[in-house]
Amino acid sequence: MKTLDDLDVAGKKVLLRSDLNVPLDGDRITDDGRIRASVPTVNALLDKGAKVIVAAHLGRPKGEPDPKYSLAPVAERLGELLDVPVTFAADTVGESARAAVAAMPERSVVLLENVRFNAGETSKDDAARGAFADQLAALADVYVSDGFGAVHRKHASVYDIAKRLPSGAGLLIQAEVTVLKKLTEDVERPYAVVLGGSKVSDKLAVIANLLEKADSILVGGGMVFTFLKAQGFEVGRSLLEEDQIETVRGYLRRAAERGVEFVLPVDVVAATEFSASADHAVVPASQIPADRLGLDIGPESGKLFANKLATAKTVFWNGPMGVFEMEPYAGGTRAVAQGLIDSGAFTVVGGGDSAAAVRLLGFDEASFGHISTGGGASLEYLEGKTLPGLAVLEEGN
């Protein structure tokens, strides 16, 4: 896989695929972590004398322009973080984009509008994706892939364009791959994995793979109630995936056979409604009242998880322990984050909601070994899947 050091970019136009898929409240960015993570590669290209054309997506528009998914707020924030102004093109490959690129001076940045406003970006038809990739490639001389959060997608701006221009990996993708190799190829043990989030079905494949690699798996979040149900406990009105109960039972059996420790909460915070103002109480995980739903692991579970992490040498964490955005249900996620810091282990926070939680709850990002920008991509890598956006870079062009 070529890197920035292998590419001749001086005086050239570089199409840089970044991951700028940030959460918005209207046009206000609520977490700019992914924008900040993109800055080092932009600056490195500028320092090498490149003109940088940034391509990215935001949300899931339906292949046509949708104002609520515009990257305009991102352009403003990116400009604040860089030491050069950012010109925003009002389309992806149309008149605005072509004019903005044609007018680029040395050491300048253009951000194209959301690539998913073009149906060719995500099309399953190779010809349609290829046609859009041709239009993107016409804007530039070199392609740099740095949007790790999208490398598990076979999309035009991630995969097809790398076949059309001299290509290499940006600093963020290099860092992400280095870290993931530490979690799969040369793991320092004991290796603990903390999984949370809402649905166990989202994590099935990674659990299956980690049963072959991890020493312990700690489960919280909404997905834990399917595990509790699989053990014969009632879970009240908590989130439950009935169709996954047998699969989860199979995982618990396999873990026992392989000597992998599964750690489940001993208590939960159960509320009458999905609301910060609802009546809530700490109850045993085995005795959730029929009229309540679990919205966080309880304080004893937080201590249990932290104690388990204290002996680990490597920790991967993906998914919050509860509805951390609401203060009454943030304690479990806070305890796990602090447990990672206190462990002294090599710690990886696996993107998405976990990374947002770390920032929202006020933790110093530097306290963790690595905070990934790509939750889905990280999980698929750990599942052992081939990620199209990385595979095409390995092929080289």
Automatic annotation (TrEMBL):
Keyword Transferase: yes
Pathway annotation: Carbohydrate degradation; glycolysis; pyruvate from D-glyceraldehyde 3-phosphate: step 2/5
Keyword presence, Cytoplasm: yes
Broad class of where this protein is predominantly found: cytoplasm
Gene3D superfamilies given in the database record: Phosphoglycerate kinase, N-terminal domain
Domain of life: Bacteria
GO molecular function, one term: kinase activity
Binding site residues for substrate: 19-21, 34, 57-60, 116, 153
Reactions this protein catalyses: (2R)-3-phosphoglycerate + ATP = (2R)-3-phospho-glyceroyl phosphate + ADP
Localization per Swiss-Prot or TrEMBL: Cytoplasm
EC number(s) recorded for this UniProt protein: 2.7.2.3
Binding locations of ATP: 203, 294, 325, 351-354
Protein keywords: ATP-binding, Cytoplasm, Glycolysis, Kinase, Nucleotide-binding, Transferase
UniProt-listed CDD domains: Phosphoglycerate_kinase
InterPro entries named in the record: Phosphoglycerate_kinase, Phosphoglycerate_kinase_CS, Phosphoglycerate_kinase_N, Phosphoglycerate_kinase_sf
Major enzyme class: transferase
Subunit structure: Monomer.
Family the entry assigns: Belongs to the phosphoglycerate kinase family.
The protein's name in its UniProt record: Phosphoglycerate kinase
Organism: Catenulispora subtropica
